[in-house]
Design brief:
single chain; alpha+beta; eight-stranded mixed β-sheet; about 425 residues
Length: about 425
Amino acid sequence: MLTIKQITDDKEAVIRGLEKKHFEGARKAIESVLAIDNKRKAAQAERDRLLSEINSLSKSIGALMKEKRQEEAETVKKRVSEIKEQTKVLEEEVKNAEEERKQLLYTIPNVPYDLVPEGRTAEENQVVKTGGPAAEDLPSEALPHWELAKKYNLIDFDLGVKISGAGFPVYIGMGARLQRALINFFLDEARAAGYTEIMPPTVVNAASGYGTGQLPDKEGQMYHAEADDLYLIPTAEVPVTNIYRDVILNEKDLPVKNCAYTQCFRREAGSYGKDVRGLNRLHEFSKIEIVRIDTPEHSRESHEEMLAHVEGLLQKLELPYRILRLCGGDMSFTAALCYDFEVYSEAQHRWLEVSSVSNFDSYQANRLQCRYKNADKKIQLCHTLNGSALALPRIVAALLEDFQTPEGIRIPKALQPYMGCDMIR
């Protein structure tokens, strides 16, 4: 969440940033935060004044007792008791104002960097780079991945419906092997890039959801086990970043670089139509996430390194791709700067998003109280970053569709050692 210092240092800049994200009522929300904070400061100042008065009166009691002025001493004691009751009321006011301020800040999104373009929808995102091999012209009878999955007995969508419901596919034979090959390939590449592998839980408590910003913004999109008040994770970002909740790191240990493979769960409420067929949008899927905790001075460099890592994966998979800088209106609630990676599906004639790589600045760290101690022993908020490296479903879709041949599905060279073959037949 935003810090009070961030707001008071340049209130108008914060409001402009929130308006770039098309956050309705930006000015009203920020003014309300400041009004609550002023109420908190007034109560705290009065409490501090009274505590100072108590200190002075307490000293005078001893002097009065020495001078045998018992009656005056008792009067002062009574006054001290009255002031202590007043301070208790003020302490409660301070506590309530702090909680009210925090709850309001939870509802206000992060401020985007100046680099973020104006815009409301995905159509206004900026394509900053394209790469990979040119998309091959497939024959007119080329099949979409859901037909290829059926033809080669790789994925059974109907069986998933029987077991769980729509959006929970069952991978079979070479389809399951392709999943495992991609998972191992992505993890090996992350380890080679210096990321420490984590195997976290796939359910988290509410505190973890608040820490990374899924709550209260996205609770309708998360599966909630109400009896235990636990949430199925939408991404490994949540448990991995929460490792550092209420932790003070040493600057010399930054950046922290973690990666994790997990299953991810998303309700995807309201999704329908042709764009959700097959693997295009699922309720459960596999993903490898990379997470960094860094200093404010180095976080933008970390972001560039993460982008280069994801781009390298797509190059090794021989897929045509493009990188987009998201506009304010298409960014997540918590991100300050985000780039999406998309791969091209020749069979579907559309770009498929396979990764988002985000810098959250200090927004998550403030919620998490994830901090570091610098060389001067000063404690500051960290910056947090994460990205998909990579999400499997649409990568699988693109591999099946773009590499289909009359003989079968060609396997890119980087995956062949993991698959143990060069073709799915």
